[in-house]
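Supplementary material to the annual report.
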Amino acid sequence: MVTKEVEKLLLKVQKPGRYTGGELNQVVKDKEKVDVRFAFCFPDTYEVGMSHLGMKILYSQFNSVEHIWCERVFAPWLDMEELMIKNNIPLYALESGDPISDFDFIGFTLQYELSFTNVLNMLKLGNIPIYSKDRTELKQIVVAGGPCACNGEPIADFIDLFFIGEGEEVDLEVIELFRKCRSENKSKQEFLQLAAQIKGVYVPSLYDVEYNEDGTIKAVTPKNGAPAKIEKRLIMDMDNVYYPDNFVVPMVEIVHDRAVQEIFRGCIRGCRFCQAGFIYRPVREKSIDAIDRQCRALCENTGYDEVSLSSLSSSDYSKAVELLSRLNEWSNDEKVSISLPSLRVDGFTDDIMSKIKTVRKSGLTFAPEAGSQRLRDVINKNVKEDELLNTCHVAFNGGWNKVKLYFMIGLPTETMDDVVAIPKLGMSVVGEYHKCENRPKNKGVTVTVSTSSFVPKPFTPFQWEPQDTKAQLIEKQNKIKETINTRKITYNYHDADTSFLEAVFARGDRRLCKAMAKASEKGFHFDGWSDCFSLEKWMDIFKECGIDPTFYANRRREFDEILPWDHIDYGVSKEFLIKECKKAYANATTEHCRQKCNNCGAAKYKGGVCFEKRQSMV
Amino acid sequence: MKNVRVWFKKDFECRYISHLDLNRCMLRAVHKSKIPVWHTEGFNPHPFITFALPLSLGFRGERETMDMRLTEDFDFEEIVKRLNTCLPNGIRVFDVTEPVLKPGKIAFALFDIKLTSDSISPANLCSELNVLFSKEEILIDKKTKSGIKEINIKPYLSDYSLSANDEYVHLSIKLPAGSQENVNPTLIINAAEKYLDKEIYSDITRLDILTEEETPFE
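Predicted assembly:
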């Protein structure tokens, strides 16, 4: 719905289709007839947010409940934001066009640390006080979930409650509690205290944090009956958990413009830098029958001719080939193509290749993450160089001639030898192309080597590690540039400044809230976009607030230090993470979950891969 | 194989999507509808659809057309029904016909334009526009592929009417359209903004597309 006031602005901005709603399959209800209005906010642009699967799932699920109306809200791009401010138009939800201040819940999904300023900015654009303590009534409850909720401390002063883990069940429980509290005329404070009793709910205002003189945390103390440890929520029965048979189909092109079918959650691998590999444990698969049924319904209801099978490391689905065969039974006739976006180097077999390229062919992307075998062992990315080369061989012979390789620089224990190994691996791939007899005729090979800077994340074995300084990272980037001696390799690298800020927020504590508020006051937004990001401006803010950002980004923590997120429990024990960290220093790898149980702690959820029969046991 | 011409309106939220987005939107709707249409046979097979005359972003369209090719006989009314269930509400198919004319026959388009300005009343805006339109020459910069070019839009102001009511100025105008010569009514709005030095809001509807003989395109 577009109001008259908004309509006046639309022809003055880029891609106005982002601000109108009205797409196929959007849900419109009568606001007089619903009980709870939920504004689901994605703190980034429409094109990014509409590509996000979690939002699609929760949007449909909330709306499947008669008395809840969930609407979508995205951050307006700079041109639209400016006009909205100039014309006094508050941030509105797309379905009704109503300002978000009218809503009972304002929910954010936190996918990326650099979107934190957008969270505050969106509240501001909605004329909602940013501090939790300034919103005193039982309305405009600001909630947040998603991976970055695992350490929400840098925005703890602004969020009323965090959802820890997977949202399908806990979100609805909190909404029900809200209805009950409102009908009983309870206060917001009473509601929050009761909500804190729900498993998977973290109410930051119910915890006091004390600090030592050296700046580390002395103690985190719960009050008013809040639990000492907040346990994550997760769904064990993946076949029966809610999954939408319908997506809102955007009219303007978005980043991932296709149907998305989830095939499992979690990852068996345990790469030591990867937060997702730990916080989503254990691996829980959907059955082939469920995937096939859901996938088909989605394609029929949306009209998409492409569906992507979504998970971490999708080729680790235990029956990947069987699944693809089943989907191919109808997908070819219906002219639907199937893509597997997250393929491991060792998962790209002839069999899988033939089934995903039947309709269309795209570029190939692999992530060896580190150049040398030693460093790949350190990070537990159990991929060997000859596996990568073999895979590329198969792909080149199958008609591909573009490969993208992703790496990280600044990984723990990295030396210049490891850095130089990155372009060398790229050159080996180029060499492999010329060995292929069936390579595409008259076409050269393009290998893109991309490096990002390692950001240590909570709940990983590297959560105690310092991040490389900017100078170190730039030296490494330059070394790679120098080493590349062929035009067949394109080198891209991620800006070290944004990685630094990401590292500060990722492992930050509550004292950063002050800097966040200041940044919001100064109108910071879209920090994840080079159009807006300025580390210089952030450094000014840190200075103003008396905060040393290197304390968070570049400091090595001791194993016995109390970390800002220690009171959150994702099922993986700290002992296990310490053991993994020590193994990394010894260049020792850890077997994946299907080879051997390594006692990470996730078996306490009594399901998933932890209770699968291992092949070695059959 | 049989070519069919699909007639639709583009309005509401859907007026804010570009021609490329409309194309994608229609492709998905055709795919979803399972109407037996001919697909291209290249690397990325997709339903073969063509539009007679693209509509600018922001315009409403009353009589827009899209051609596609059926691989087997299919009831026209069923096509209307199915496409409408597969399209967003802002795009409504109202008829399917057998194409009579080739899109190359299009020569004019008829526009209905509502103009308002925050700084001047509709009656005054109307009289200022009357003065402007009666000038000998109205020059305006036009962005072309080869850069900005100054053109005179006066020759295109041959068939129009201007009137005002309490809310807006009503401009009804016929402009050259099609592959030979195409004049976007936004040029006239731009000229008005430049010469009257005012911010003008416009609400543009393309009512119809016409042939050289000024009969409706069919």
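Chain B has two domains: 2-99, 104-211.
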